[in-house]
Amino acid sequence: MSATSPHDRAHPLFARAWAAAMVRLQPGSMLEQRDALAAGLHGTVVEVGCGSGTAFRHYPPEVERVIAIEPEPYLRRQAMRAAAWAPVRVEVRPGVAEHLPLDDASVDAAVCSLVLCSVPDQAAALTEIARVLRPGGELRYYEHVAEPAGTLSRRAQDLLDATGAWAAIGGGCHVARDTAAAIRTAGFTIDRERTETLGPPLIVPVRRHLLGVARLPA
Question: Is 7 within a domain?
């Protein structure tokens, strides 16, 4: 496992704040969401943007191998440590969502948790995920998404994205992406999906979250 990669995307301050928050501040609801993301998975799984590896302990024993991709060097080192204690086999690799270091149709499922907001090219990332999934493969996702069009909260989100203010402090995060639409455009069919709302309008800019399962044609 290489310590550095030409695809590294370093966000030193954000990475350390995120890793610390996942240890000290991760709410119980997020633990439940990680359980839901992993439930029923089997075979080979790619976790795209694994962060510090906090999701590793949620994978069921039916998963033979997790290939965990992380472009941020500090978070990748933390993930390597977490992999040593995971209940399943985890390989942490450098890489980015738009260029996954995997063969075509080589994994049974992909997991994305709070990562499709921050990839520079969401459409390219989803196309790449579709490439590495086997026919009929699943995409499990937990992502925050844009507020409904025309609302005051959505206008605030659009302003944050336009100015780049949130991305600058949030590791490249965008708050106004329509991720469900992007998943469908990439060729997936959404099997099931639920919306969760966290916090009051205008106070929490990333309050609407989607927890879902999408599938490629068999």
Answer: no
Q: Which of 21-30, 98-107, 203-212 tops mean pLDDT?
A: 98-107
Average pLDDT, the chain: 89
Q: Is the pLDDT of residue 24 over 60?
A: no
Which domain range does residue 56 map to? 12-215
* Residue 4 included in any domain: no
Tens of pLDDT along 181-214?
999 999 999 999 999 887 776 677 888 999 999 9
**102 located within any domain:** yes
Tokens of 170: 């949030």
Confidence of residue 1 (pLDDT cuts 50, 70, 90): very low
DSSP string, the chain: --S--TT----HHHHHHHHHHHHHT--HHHHHHHHHHHTT--EEEEEES-TTSTTGGG--TTEEEEEEE---HHHHHHHHHHHTT-SS-EEEE--BTTB-SS-TT-EEEEEEES-TTT-S-HHHHHHHHHHHEEEEEEEEEEEE-PPPTTSHHHHHHHHHHHHTHHHHHTTT--S---HHHHHHHTT-EEEEEEEEE-S-TTT-TT-EEEEEEEE---
Work out how many domains the chain is built from and give that number: 1
Evaluate whether residue 2 is within a structural domain.
Answer: no
CATH of residue 83: 3.40.50.150
